[in-house]
Amino acid sequence: MATKQMLAGCPVQHALQYIGGKWQMGILWHLRKGATRFNVIKEALPGLSEKVLADNLKFFENAGIVEKQVFAAVPPKVEYRLTQDGQTLLPVIEKVVAWGYAHLQEEKVNAHMQYTPLSTMEGFAASSYPVMIG
After folding, report:
1. Please, are residues 66 and 80 in contact by the beta-carbon 8 Å criterion?
2. Nearest to 30 by CA among 72, 82, 91, 70
3. Percent of the chain at pLDDT above 70?
4. Cβ atoms 66, 60 nearer than 8 A
5. Which residue, of 17, 24, 98, 132, has the greatest Cβ tally within 10 A?
6. What is the distance between the alpha carbons of residues 75 and 60, in angstroms, rounded to a whole number?
7. What count of Cα atoms within 13 Å lies in the side-chain half-sphere of residue 24?
8. Is the model more confident about 107 or about 119?
């Protein structure tokens, strides 16, 4: 069994801090096109609570993966964007999504799985990977 000391220098465990959480890849994926507002991310990921989104964005911000920009406006306007370091995670996420869809089988889909929003699939289909929508 692996101990904390054994995993201390493990690159896989390090990477999973940023993409291993239930909502982390989805949040980062929705920031790929540029500055995005909090509610836009929340609406794109059904079931994601405001608290979990805020916690993840704060984590990413502290890690240097996401940058928060606050505009002096009434009501307050805040946008989030990937930093240059954060953008280096996108190819990893693309590979995970491509693998997932390549291995997804109708009979394995059950009521407990969440479906990827069509807007996400359309964005992914526009990338360099062949993805069937529909």
Report:
1. yes
2. 82
3. 72
4. yes
5. 24
6. 24
7. 21
8. 119
Alpha-carbon radius of gyration of the chain? 16
Q: Closest Cα partner for 80 from 68, 64, 93?
A: 68
CA 86 remoteness from chain centre: 11
**109 φ, ψ (degrees, to nearest 5):** -75, 130
Whole-angstrom distance, CA of residue 122 vs CA of residue 110: 23
Query: 27 near 41, Cβ under 8 Å?
Result: yes
Pure H helices in the chain: 4-7, 11-19, 24-30, 38-44, 50-63, 84-87, 90-103, 118-125
Cα-based distances in Å from 87 to 49, 90, 91, 93? 24, 5, 8, 10
Structure tokens at 22: 């239930």
The encoded tokens of residue 27 equal 């949040």
- pLDDT-above-90 percentage for the chain: 49
> Is the N-terminal amide bond of 75 cis, ω within 30° of 0?
yes
What's the pTM value of the predicted model, to 2 decimals? Answer: 0.71
